[in-house]
């Protein structure tokens, strides 16, 4: 199978199959707590690219679909594809009012009247609706959170680019510099606790040219970039712990120690960011790169 983004690092949680209650609960934690953190990133990108009724968008690693929903509200025709998160796709279906297509058929009857469509599979399975190629591809799962992010994204792009028009925009996202991301100190807990497993599934700092390197390797032409402030804000510490765990970044740490130890150390790491009213507030920045299909 082609490399995919199945190993997720905010803004999407690690894939998990089955109907286990804990898996469903984590998907809900992602959708209800953590997924809203990058909303300023989505909105900034959509505003810059003038996303609207003429946009035919393919969202890679769409998860529970919040970015798709925001584009659809602007009038875009959206298709989301995800290869390893059935619980999240089910939540995306609830949001967009459509069923999930696991057949790869562009004529799938689960599309909404506005054209929203969700595909369980690889980008190559998401044939453009009505045989009209996509004119925008988004990959909002940040590069630079895990060692295999770039390779997974390249596999996704290899399947997505042929389904889009020449000159179409491809949006790549990444973590900002660690010094601009207060969450970095909290996410380092994952790396430290997971060390016996050599950091597998844990967080690592972004490099300055991560996005540009991916674009070059994918044969895309850079056409602008930006940084967007996306603070991580939570109602209280327990909500922050649940939201951060839902990203999947702490899975290896939990395997190396146990969930209780992870929760304890997360709580301690969050202490400097707890405000007087009990809420948690961490300044954070995401980067994005707009590239064009040659």
Q: What's the arrangement of strands in the largest beta sheet? A: 3-4-2-1-5-6-10-7
Backbone shape? globular
Number of strands: 10
| Residue windows where pLDDT falls under 50 for at least 5 positions | 1-18, 196-201
Tally the helices: 10
The largest pleated sheet is described as:
8 strands, mixed
| Helix and strand pattern | HHEHEHEEEHEHHEEHHHEE
- pLDDT averaged over residues: 85
What is the helix content? 25-40%
- Which range does the strand content fall in? 15-25%
Describe this entry's structure for a reader.
It is built from ten helices and ten strands. It is α/β, with parallel strands linked by helices. It has a domain at 21-178 and 203-233 and 283-293: Vaccinia Virus protein VP39 (Rossmann fold, 3-Layer(aba) Sandwich), CATH 3.40.50.150. The strands form two sheets. Strands 3-4-2-1-5-6-10-7 form an eight-stranded mixed β-sheet, with helices on both faces. A two-stranded antiparallel ribbon has the order 8-9. α5 (149-160) runs parallel beside α7 and α6 packs antiparallel against α10. The longest helix has 14 residues, at 21-34. The protein starts with 20 loop residues before the first helix and ends with a strand. This is SAM-dependent methyltransferase.
